[in-house]
Design a protein that fits this description.
about 525 residues, alpha/beta, Dimethylsulfoxide Reductase, domain 2, Rossmann fold, Barwin-like endoglucanases, six-stranded mixed β-barrel, five-stranded parallel sheet, 20 helices
Length: about 525
Amino acid sequence: MTNSIGELQGADVLLVTGSNTTETHPQIARNILEGVDRGAKLIVIDPRKTELARQAHVHLALRPGTDIALVNGIMRSIIDENLADDLFISMRTEQYEKLRDYLFRLNLDEIAAITGIGLSTIRKAAKIYARSSNAVICYCLGVTQHTCGTDNVQAVANLAMLTGNIEKAYGGVDPLRGQNNVQGACDMAALPAVLPGYQGLDNIDARRRFQQVWNCDIPQTPGLSLTEMTHSGAEGDIRAMYIMGENPVLSDPHLKRVETTLKQLDFLAVSDIFLTETAALAHVVFPAASFAEKGGTITNSERRVQLCRKAIPPIGKCRADGHIIMELGRRLNCPGMDFTSNAEIMEEISLLTPIYGGMHYDRLEENWGLQWPCWNRDHPGTKFLHKHNFTRGKGQFTITRHREPAETVETKYPFTLVTGRGSYHHYHTATMTRNSRRLVREYPEALLEINEKDSRALQLQPGEPVEVHSRRGSVRVKTVVTDRVQPGTVFTSFHFWEVPINQLTVDAMDSRSKCPEFKVCSVNIKKVSHA
């Protein structure tokens, strides 16, 4: 997040796109709704009529996969109304003329047809956003999980820069991270192409520092992304995996390819707090400690690093992730695996990771956490980014063009399936939440949301099961008739192993981020025969 969670309450306009915030980020949603209660305008971009969308002043119910066309239409409307922030553009950005000339060549009637949103509604949203003093954009996986996900994010950045809603409080662009400590994991280089602190593998000075401290060679070539690894197949180059706190047998796209890959490995080790569907395939399972049984730090969506204190000792033979990694390192003769405390690990992080340079345990104990970048012991942390300059100097506008998803509807597969986390009660692959009897009682089974018009056409009774087919597989799931989805679109979650919905999703991915296109795939729906 460029800005802080609390700032959402002070924004004049909140534009939320690709996020079912009330169900997947309830604490952030609380701040958004607090801002609305104080008089902020709320714009929601989402194919579904989520609870947040129902409370929006403008709901832009776009056709799935048309985010770029819609944002381009909003920007064109802002320019037409002379609402662009010319001073910010001239002082802080570059390449604006190229983007402006491209937007002028767009046909707004075509954009309305592509997105399925009336031109007057697009213009209304554009005026509300651009006329505000402080506007913030929040986005989540509904923006990124497309083959054009990187361009989707760039389009959002274009919109923020066009109106000068960056570099100041109560504005900015706030990606809502998908899982607990995803921000911290990325900061610590759980990515294939960077060292901790997003220091590139091509950064000679950074590599030299790590080599000196770690006493080993640092690779210069990026590794593989998650999907590239789990989809490498039976004859792939990867012959062994160690999977921590991840359940790709349910969460990855095109599950048959994932199962083929994992079953053909020479060796698979899994570390988790429950015996997940992935752990059931492993040669070795390490019982991991839960968050309450270990200490360390967690970095949340607003870049805030906070101490996590151990509440109870690990139960049974469970061990903290760090302990497991260090023990493996020692047995593999990896140098530098002899830390005696979490504070000692944090000292190494602050030594090698400039944006964490001032993150020492004694400082974190005295505060509610510090937001990076925090360059040294005297630095107070950074509430919002880009106050005086962007990391690259000037912000660069980039032309983004609409392109269709990897799969589009056709006669054999006439419905668009959208997947996501669709329940207050369950989270991700429900590894933890389905071990709670109360949560299971509230939401016991998978449900496929279908519009009433489509339900009538299929002659479905309420709650009747259907078979959903894609080019990759099929599942059987119970339906729920609702106005949350538009005709021609269906939605369900991937919480339930009995309905492994990712058997259906495509393995097409963004060429740069390697993020799969979970949000759009074409399917056929058939009423289940009584026989």
